[in-house]
Amino acid sequence: MFVDSGAITIVSAATVVVHGLGIAHAAHAVMNVRSSQGAIAWGISLVTFPWLALPLYWILGRTKFHGYAEALRLVYSQHYQLARQTYNDIAQFHVGLPDKLAQLQPLAKAFTGIPFTSGNAAELLIDGHKTYEAMLKAIAFARNYILLQSYIVNDDQAGNEFKAELIEKAKQGVSIYFLYDEIGSNKLSRSYIQSLRQHGIQVSAFQTTRGKGNRFQLNFRNHRKIVVVDGEIGFLGGLNIGDEYLGKNPHLSPWRDTHMKLQGPTVQSLQASFMQDWYWATRKFIDVNWQIKANREANQTAFVLPTGPADQFKACNLFFVNAINQAQTRLWIATPYFVPDEATLTALKLAAIRGVDVRIILPNRPDHLFVYLCSFSYYGEMEAIGIKLYRYKHGFMHQKIILIDEAMAGVGTVNLDNRSFFLNFEVMGFVAAPQFVESVEKMLEEDLAVSVAVDFSEYYKKPLWFKLAVRISRLLMPLL
To answer: Among the options 25, 169, 223, 349, which is catalytic?
Structure first.
């Protein structure tokens, strides 16, 4: 039988090249991957199975988003006077925190340049109908401009209701800027976007693959949900825009989620976050209102924390770990995904050892099977240390909440997982005001009333295939 020696030579050369690339990329992974477990997993995979591992590494391997910080430095230098004046205006509302939270203030300033401020008003918005009603009402009263950012926008009844209201405001001469994540909103129709643009609305995807080193990356997401109206009213939280967030998906209904409305200096922080993302996506600077309209009547202390994979520090993870460490009596967390890194898990354990009432509410039904399975792998560690875990039974729970003692509550987009801490662009609002904290406490008590306390021993009764799937999920998490 005749064998083409030329074909053998080509195959041999290709094999050498691919394995050489695998070794080179394994060295890159060892030097750059965030966790030691991830570096080891990528290194072994790239050396052993380079044909499969190389394309996966190109798509999923990076944890640093390139070019974003450099682009912001450029725009800041171009608008230095405005930036400094804005920060100085916000700094006038600087406020001291109670002793138990005092350590968070230097972190806030280090990560964002903007401290906790007074003069804010925060309102809790529970579930989709109340949230959409509040946002659409604010949009309807817009006089000058609207900034809208969402991870997911669907071309359905809810999505079209927002589109119709935005188009109506555009006809009235209001400037509108609409930003979406192209991966999260991959099902958004071209006609939806064209309809907005035809009415003068500025629309852009976030452009996660823009920039050197990002071209093949699908691991980064802009998970922020932000609405700002005239620089005076802001919204952030867990709700995207679509019918499922109103409970219209029969597989996940009713949908349980939480958002918040803000007024005061924190709105400028939200606006700055949007402006940065918009500049990255479009290379255009928006002329907006930077005058602070403080709410002296409510006068709540609050802080907005935008974080992402372009941060100089791992701001999201560091802030959460420090906040958990401040808890003295109570730490209640609601999150749809529980895949904590080692530092966060250690902080939770230490809180429980200190005698803190640590409760974590998770959904009982999954929307992403992989991370749902992974959460079971932490059962043994939580049982041993006294952390209480609850499964929410009344539909799917998507809210992202942290409640610390009677001192502070946080609402936003951050899940308790590696993706939110290290790979996504996220935003959280933290409020240190008794009335708001009490409203979050009441809300979580109602959620706990329709949740069931997990009997950790039930996991040990699961079939072998389930336990194997759980362990495989836990082993694969460092790769993401």
So the answer is: 223
